[in-house]
Fold this protein.
Amino acid sequence: MEALARQSWTDDRLDDRFDHLEGEMDQRFTRVEGEMDQRFSRVEREMDQRFTRVEGEMDQRFTRVEGEMKAGFARLDGEIKELRTEIKESNAELRAEIKGANAELRAELAALNRTLIQAGFGLAAAVIAGVLLHLF
């Protein structure tokens, strides 16, 4: 796109002054543009360095967390195995207690049964004796 042509001033001195200012402004803009490119390049390098550092730190953190998780899961596996062993032992103890209590209950029921049978025979003998005494 072409720049619009400027009209000439009526005084040649103004034209010379404007031409001088135009050249000086071009130089300044070129210098500022170069400085800005340098600054942006520096900022870009710094950002790349920071991102690389943060990336490394994140990798270390993830590695540490992964190690902690593996150790935690291994600990949990050990605790679960230990708990299973305890439950099996408690279950075996409970079964032994139940079997013992069951044997005691059966013995007491057998003794009660014998007592009831003896009482039944005694009662039957008393009834028979009463009937016989009443008849004779």
In short: The helical segments are 12-135. The radius of gyration is 54 Å. DSSP finds one helix and no strands in the chain.
